[in-house]
Amino acid sequence: MQKVYGSATEALEGVIKDGMLIAAGGFGLSGIPELLLAAIRDSGVKDLTFASNNAGVDDFGIGILLQTRQVKKMISSYVGENAEFMRQYLSGELELEFNPQGTLAERMRAGGAGIPGFYTKTGVGTVIAEGKDHKDFNGQTYIMEEGIFADLSIVKAWKADTTGNAIFRKTARNFNPPAAMCGKVCIMEVEEIVQPGELDPDHIHLPGIYVHRIIQGAHEKRIEQRTTRPRSAA
Amino acid sequence: MAWDRNQMAARAGQELKDGMYVNLGIGIPTLVSNYIPEGVSVTLQSENGMLGMGPFPYEGEEDPDLINAGKQTITELAHTSYFDSATSFGMIRGGKIAMAILGAMEVDEKGDLANWMIPGKLIKGMGGAMDLVAGVGRVIVVMDHTNKHGESKLLKECTLPLTGAGVVDRIITNLGVLDVVEGGLKIVETADGVTEDELRAATEATIV
């Protein structure tokens, strides 16, 4: 079974369709599947729903698909860095479902683990809880949230072997493993593909069972908030 | 006289106890890391997937794969660990994080907190704030006592959409420190040069 594809466009062939629910990894611009997002833009598919913590910035990340009006709905926890997003949302062109960040991560993890619903205390007593099933456990109130079962997952890892066993780097891991788990098909882009045996099996962050297609490419890896300290500081 | 931003952060720093795992929010709470008391060792969590958050990097050493929850470039420490977002919020929701220090738009006398949305104006999203206030052991709010119109931010009842209901334990403002207790807020201390009467006058919430 060959999982390695030559390009993001080739990896999307036969998979990408109008109206899909796509789970995407990344936090801010860190660890986003930037090559696959560009290829999805170029494919021209539309009416997409994205489950993704953020919506990128105007000209990078999911933002590039907002510019081309390919996104119908976002399921996100924070979208504050994207002016075009705000414009489309306020004019009614774009649907938005806010999920608390941990609820979004758990919805993805649960979907990947075959769990259609779970109870959480996050959001109890807020607008997030409206219309949701409430249940008390041990004297505390919880609300039910549903697992996300995505049509497609697009994620970014640091290294993977040709069977899809993957290692992430530092905080670029973020939503990538749970996003990978919850898709019927998962396409992963990496900085380096290695041969089986080159990664220590004890150090694998995401087993290859969750990964169906892999591509390697050069990543821009843009920094959203470059913050430094002076060298003279103690 | 009242506390400035750094003095508020320094007062919040006194809440930190040796060995704690702590999550610091954006704004004044971030400054608290500059005021960790002598002899106290705490581990800072960044909810995008890191325990053991270090200081900002030196110029030229920024790493796009190493950011905090405010998307700022940061560094790691010797005891740092990384994990995915589901694991990160598992430890938050599971009560493993001892304390969160957060900013707020409004807090009320029941401990309700509003810090994520102004209908029609600010629609950025709650990020991890709802999970944090629901899950961590102790929630400390650090904020100005009044808004830019001079109106109290410590209310009888929050007017903005809530981040969490009955979640705040302690409030540190430029005027002093108050605890959420049965029936209202209790003054713990006043800021330098602030009288109890001045603090009461600037507070809409019931003080018990």
TrEMBL record, chain A:
PANTHER family referenced in this protein's UniProt entry, alphabetically: ACETATE COA-TRANSFERASE SUBUNIT ALPHA, KETOACID-COENZYME A TRANSFERASE
A single MF term (Gene Ontology): transferase activity
SUPFAM superfamilies hit by this protein: NagB/RpiA/CoA transferase-like
Family: Belongs to the 3-oxoacid CoA-transferase subunit A family.
Pfam families per the UniProt record, alphabetical: CoA_trans (PF01144)
NCBIfam families for the chain: pcaI_scoA_fam
Ranges in coiled-coil conformation: none
Top-rank lineage group of the source organism: Bacteria
Keyword set includes Cell cycle: no
Assigned keywords, A-Z: Transferase
Protein name: Succinyl-CoA--3-ketoacid-CoA transferase
SMART domains listed in its UniProt record: CoA_trans (SM00882)
UniProt-listed InterPro entries: 3-oxoacid_CoA-transf_A, CoA_trans_fam_I, CoA_transf_BS, NagB/RpiA_transferase-like
Automatic annotation (TrEMBL), chain B:
Entry keyword Transferase: yes
Keyword Cytoplasm found: no
NCBIfam families reported in the protein's UniProt record: pcaJ_scoB_fam
PANTHER family named in the record: KETOACID-COENZYME A TRANSFERASE, SUCCINYL-COA:3-KETOACID COENZYME A TRANSFERASE SUBUNIT B-RELATED
Stored InterPro entries: 3-oxoacid_CoA-transf_B, CoA_trans_fam_I, NagB/RpiA_transferase-like
UniProt keyword annotations, A-Z: Transferase
Similarity field: Belongs to the 3-oxoacid CoA-transferase subunit B family.
Molecular function via GO: transferase activity
Species of the source: Marivita lacus
Official protein name in the record: Succinyl-CoA--3-ketoacid-CoA transferase
Pfam annotation, one family: CoA_trans
